[in-house]
Amino acid sequence: MSSYGAAGRFGEGRSGIMAISKLISVRLGATVALLVATVIAVSLAALIYLHSAEEAARGIKRHDAVAAGAAADIAVLLERHRRLVETALLDRDPSALDQRRQSAERIGMLITTLLSNNHDTSVSLLRDDFDALTASARAAFFAAREKEQSEVQRHKTQYTALANRLQETVRSSRNTSLRSATETLILLERRGEDLRFLILATALPALLLLGPISLLIVAGIIRRINQLTYGMRRVALNDTTIALPALDDGDEIGDMARALEVFRNNAETLVRNAKEIERLNAWFDIALNNMARGLSMFDAHGRLVVCNRQYLELYQLTPALGQPGTHIVDIAMSRAARSHPDAVVACEAETRAEMVAWFDTLRQRLALGTPFSQQQILPDGRTIDIHVQPLDDGGWVDLHEDITEADRAKRRITELASSDTLTGLANRRQFMGALEAWYHGSDDSRPMAVLWFDLDRFKAVNDTYGHPVGDTLLRLVAKRLRATVRGDDLIARLGGDEFAILLEPMGEPVAAAEIVGRRVIAALSQPFDIDGRQITVGASVGVAIARVHGATADDLLQNADIALYRAKTSGRGTVVAYQTEFEQTIKAQRQLESDLRLAVEKGELMLHYQPIVDLQTGQVVSCEALMRWRHRDQGMISPAVFIPMAEDLGLIEHLGAWALKQACLDAATWPRGTKVAVNVSASQFASRDLVSAALAALATSGLEPERLEVEVTELVLLRDDASTLDTLNTLSALGISIALDDFGTGYASLSYLRRFPFNKIKIDQSFIRDMKNGSGSATIVRAIVNLANTLGMTTVAEGIETLSERDAARHAGCHAAQGYYYSRPVPPDAVAAAIADCSNRYDAAA
User: Fold this and answer.
1) Using only C-alpha atoms, what is the Rg of the chain?
2) Residue 627 pLDDT > 90
3) N or C: which end of the chain has fewer CB within 10 A?
């Protein structure tokens, strides 16, 4: 309020008082002079007080209260800005650094606004310093983002110095404003007391003279002053909830009340900011004690500043050791006592000396100012990862993390990445790594040898007994291999049933490798006992010598594979060292495999049929379908060559389904009494699609099920599982005949003849040809025939090539015969002629 306005209102109040005094003087007469003197004295005192109050209110309103409030706001924001910057520089996460930098810039904008709007000279002078502070903060954030620790430390030091100076200036300005306002209020309070005493001293004559009017005037002033004085006291005691009087009055008391209201609001802001700081501290405690890692901070003298709960729990420290001021040597002594209680008790002084020496070494490293990390293994086996961040004042902050499980998991992952999970041998990755390391790092004149091999008949084991038995077999193979080679030699399973051995350098590498290869073959050729079954496999081994048979690891392995291929095509169960001339043979063999694939895709394979003749009537009762392949360049390829090849290439199931369908289509054109016999492999049984394939073939051709005969080998029976029996029973229930082919040459037992629904037994040609030599084969054949008759089965003698062999088979009681004596396998369009020729041959022989 201006002095003119205050004087005007004061004049109006005085005019009213003079009017009342004149009325009283008329009525009271003699008391007029005393009344006037009293009123003048009271008015002068009030005028003096009101003028002082006006000046004080103006000072508080315009300077002290506003300056104190602004300084308080700036102080709080500066503290938050400093905490964000200094704590953010410890964080190495780029995204977290960016978030904290953005928060710091927002706070900096608020501080800049407050500094621009503040008219206090001491505070407004801080603008240049704060600009320098924010520039230092941005530089520190940038250095932290780029992980330039030396620049981070330099900018952090500059930032800390600027922040300290700014905070001290703001704190000083706020204290000065608050002290000035408080002194002014105390002075006003004292003058108010003096004025109240003067009014009371003069009020009695005025009360007696003026009566109720004077009493009301004085009481009103006193009441307002008392209320305002009481409000001043409560605000001075930080009671910001009190309601202040006279805020709407237009006189000087109203101005003073409004100034006090401003002061109260600023005090309320200070209280609120203090609570905000307390809340931030509480959040800091929550965040500190809910970190995933342990944290501790020590000063330059090694005294604990702060630590979280995880730090105490990690090292099993008592809460007392987590109190600020605890020396790190005492903490280290406690940990040593927990780990080695007897030793520490016996030599406590020596232990403390060791801890002090350790602390001195730590301080020397901290003096370098460079963050560092280290790992510590605790007596209980836990591994602790420690990251240490030195501070400018000589102290440090460290983070502690229990990485025991992560370390174990890392080692386990490394083991799994380099080991075969089934056998525990090295896997392809480890094997190739060892071979590449030798090629790139060894200068040994004695080269290493590679043995490359796989298991013979392993696919048949899987198809016959199932994959669990195959897996067990692989584990037993690995066990035998470990017992066969030296401990320094690397054994690897490369996949499936494929293995390799990397032999350490020896004298003459080829000869030494061949010796080891023969030992491997001998070890793997012995039967394996799996769940009571005697399973026999074998191995073929290819050998290649490093740098002799390959300039690189890839070339070496390719040539070892060529040597293995040659060993397998040479009769299996052999060791073959690589030779350059193998490549042409292998190339031709692989070209043949490619041609076979193409022939299967284009349907170039065909079926020929060989009649099966009833020995009593001479009639053809059935024709066996035999697969043939006419190569475009090489002519007819023997089934003994391409059938095993088809099995290795995974084509046999497709060919088996095609043979079923084509045989039924061809047989549908034959005389109604003639059956067709189709061989079915163990792979087709393993796929469990045989019944569907048979039904599809019958449906497509229209052939009666009774005219289809399925021939199985003893290998199928070795599976001895419910699915095989179920498939055979299903085929039999459809009316399809089941024949057991090559009986007596494999692993068949008499129990199979009882368990499976065979209609026919085909006696292998080896027994038929030996019948005339008196070797006992005739007796075996007769025993088989008698057994089949007892079980209600018919018998077929295979491989009949002469009249004497036919007569011997008929004399032994065989029901039918098959062989070149009657007919070679013929194409479909020659079947009718072959059937007629068989009948003519019977008539001629009779």
Assistant:
1) 54
2) yes
3) C
Query: Which residues sit opposite 637 in a β-bridge?
Result: 629
Residues 503 and 513 sit within 8 Å (Cβ to Cβ): yes
**Among the listed residues 709, 728, 726, the one whose alpha carbon sits nearest the alpha carbon of residue 818:** 709
pLDDT at 785: 92
Task: Return contacts of 76-82, CB within 8 angstroms, 24+ apart.
Answer: 76/273, 76/276, 76/277, 77/107, 77/110, 77/111, 77/114, 78/111, 78/163, 78/166, 78/167, 78/170, 79/167, 79/277, 80/107, 80/280, 81/107, 81/108, 81/111, 81/133, 81/137, 81/163, 82/163, 82/167
Contacts of residue 48, defined as CB under 8 A and 6 or more positions apart, other chains included, come to 191
pLDDT tens, position by position, 698-756? 999 999 999 999 998 877 776 656 777 888 889 999 999 999 887 766 554 566 677 77
Which position has the higher pLDDT, 122 or 689? 689
CB 171 within 8 A of CB 75: yes
pLDDT reported for residue 17: 31
Sign for the CA dihedral angle at 484, 489, 494, 498 comes to negative
Given a contact cutoff of 8 angstroms between Cβ atoms, the answer to whether 759 and 739 are in contact is yes
The predicted-structure confidence for 629-662, as pLDDT tens digits, reads as follows 998 888 888 888 888 888 878 888 889 899 999 9
Distance of alpha carbon 706 from alpha carbon 690, whole angstroms: 17
Please provide the distance, in angstroms rounded to a whole number, between the alpha carbons at the two ends of the chain: 151
pTM of the model: 0.45
3-state helix, strand, coil in the chain (%, to 5): 65, 15, 20
Please give the Cα distance from 179 to 64 (Å, whole number).
Answer: 9
**Residues with Cβ within 8 Å of residue 580, at least 6 apart in sequence:** none
